[in-house]
Write a structure and sequence with these properties.
The chain starts with a helix and ends in a 5-residue tail after the last helix. It is an all-alpha fold and 260 residues long.
Length: 260
């Protein structure tokens, strides 16, 4: 619920800022068929983006339900590690996503996406990997020196470094948007979410610990990442037709002049 409210507030704020800063008065008649087409394409992307956000905070949700609010505070180290990875990963995904869209728009051949996607994964792992190793090795000392009250969350934070590798491998998700394979992505993410909570609470949460949740999060992300990459590279290895190219929305120019 909190993730949904945050996403809605951010989207509304972005729309208000764009509206206030825009000096161009949009004219023309609204093409409701074009708007319906945009919603049909955009809604699955919105749902998948939301599900990725929920998956990234599923571990904190499980800790809050099974271990209480105080444990969530101690578990913050694990969330902080993944937050660093997300901040470093996002700019790289933005660069390669634009490149992938350009190539796919020019050729409509899904095979052209393999190189930018592989380059994105390798670049992310190359940049983030050494940082994860450094965090894993130095986290006990750093917490002992500066944050001793979080000592109980050190092991969970180190396990989060493993989850960070899986999070880097999940960078393939943007290619599903380019290919229009959002339904497949939604099923993968839904299976990961359901599997995580079923395993986390299969015995009513008895025996749950911060380390248990951290390992479960790492395993879930790794499983989702592996399936995601297998499905993508299998799909991108085939050609034919328009390669799954999104349909052209000719009425879009009526909504946003200059686009179409």
């Amino acid at each position: 619920v909190g993730q949904g409210l945050r996403f809605a507030a951010a989207s509304l704020g972005y729309w208000l800022m764009v509206r206030a800063a825009s000096r161009e008065v949009l004219g023309g008649r609204l093409d409701w068929r074009a708007i319906a087409g945009l919603m049909r394409k955009g809604a699955p992307i919105l749902i998948c983006s939301y599900m990725i956000g929920v998956l990234m905070v599923a571990d904190r949700t499980a800790v809050a339900i099974g271990l209480g609010a105080e444990a969530v505070g101690c578990y913050a180290l694990a969330g902080f590690v993944l937050l660093i990875i997300q901040g470093l990963q996002a700019p790289l995904i933005s660069v390669f996503y634009n490149r992938a869209n350009l190539l796919f728009g020019q050729t409509h051949d899904p095979r052209v996406l393999r190189r930018p996607v592989a380059a994105c994964l390798l670049a992310t792992l190359s940049m983030v990997g050494p940082l994860l190793v450094a965090i894993y090795l130095t986290l006990p000392w750093l917490v002992g020196q500066f944050l001793p009250q979080y000592a109980s969350g050190v092991e969970a934070g180190r396990i989060a470094c493993v989850a960070g590798v899986a999070q880097c491998m999940m960078g393939t998700f943007f290619a599903f948007f380019t290919l229009g394979r959002t339904v497949r992505l939604a099923w993968i993410l839904a299976a990961g979410l359901v599997g995580f909570f079923l395993i986390a609470f299969w015995n009513g949460g008895i025996g749950m610990s911060l380390e248990y949740v951290a390992w479960l999060k790492a395993g879930t992300l790794m499983g989702v990442a592996i399936v995601m990459n297998i499905v993508f590279f299998a799909s991108a290895g085939r050609s034919g037709g328009n390669g799954g190219a999104p349909e052209r929305l000719d009425g879009l120019s009526a909504v946003a002049p200059g686009v179409g």
